[in-house]
Amino acid sequence: MWKTILRRILIMIPEIILLSILVFLLAKMMPGDPFTGSINPRSSPSQIHHLMKLNGLYDPWYQQYWNWIVHLFHGNLGESYQYHEPVANLIGQRAENTLWLSLFTMIMTYLIALPMGMYAGRHEGQLSDTLIRVYTYVTYCIPFFVILIIGLWIFGYVLNWFPTTGSVSATANSGWQILLSRIYHMILPGLLGALFSTVNIVQYLRSEVIDAKHSDYVKTARAKGVPEKQIYRHHIFRNSLLPIAAFGGYSITGLLNGSIFTESIFSYPGMGLLFINSISYRDYTVITALVLLFGILNLVGTLLSDIILSLVDPRIRIK
């Protein structure tokens, strides 16, 4: 397995190089520049021209790309044009918030989806199964940002149960207060994100449970007198988790990818909101760094998914 992992990592190298070139070129092809209106709304064209020349934005694209790569290998992602601080520090600050929110969302997703999928598959054709399927179909048809806006309006503004912006209350000044405030700010966006994310897991698990409970090994277990609860717990549930385990790597790496819709609608200061703001202000250094990071995480997620699937199912070995 270790040889396979090393080979897959080596294959990722040209993929990352190609990705970095595409990301850099697409960022440079964006209309506008990062300086117009950012310093002074009445900045003269000569001032903008001087700043563009000072930052090397008039150099040929290949020279700009080479300088970016050299700095990248030295651990320097550049300086943000908008925030005027190193990009690495900026991403590090936002990554913590995104990690907290994504981790909470993923935990709630599996806590909701696994029991629902098992229950629907076990009670196939009954009213409870029909209600769960209606829930998944309706949730799947509604765009994610609509769910977020409706949830924000009902629970944030109408009922006023949860905060609607930020990640920590300004009045929190101690360790426990900051932790509780962070959790309180994550509940609404995390639950809304989890309810949307449960759809695929519930549908996959329900289908696998239905297939598994009619399989030969389950019939054999019933014929031997194994209790029904034990059959579902030790036989059906374990085998039904295999397709879901295939997405495990993407779930892990997705912790740092952030949710653009969630963070934008809730003004949650994570990497998703940082990405949207960077596009608005043509902050090329932040855009290229974030997109490259997201791409690398997706490549790593593919490898992790294969590894997790091979560990869950001994019959499968990555080659």
UniProtKB/TrEMBL annotation:
Top-level taxonomic group: Bacteria
Membrane topology qualifier: Multi-pass membrane protein
Coiled coil: none
InterPro entries named in the record: BPD_transp_1_N, MetI-like, MetI-like_sf
Location of the ABC transmembrane type-1 domain: 95-305
Gene3D superfamilies per UniProt: MetI-like
Signal peptide start-end: none
Principal location: membrane
TM segment ranges: 9-27, 99-119, 140-163, 183-205, 241-266, 286-312
Entry keyword set: Cell membrane, Membrane, Transmembrane, Transmembrane helix, Transport
PROSITE patterns from the UniProt entry: ABC_TM1
UniProt GO cellular component terms: plasma membrane
GO biological process, alphabetically ordered: transmembrane transport
Compartment(s) of residence: Cell membrane
Family, as annotated: Belongs to the binding-protein-dependent transport system permease family.
Name the UniProt record assigns to this protein: Oligopeptide abc superfamily atp binding cassette transporter, membrane protein
Organism: Liquorilactobacillus vini DSM 20605
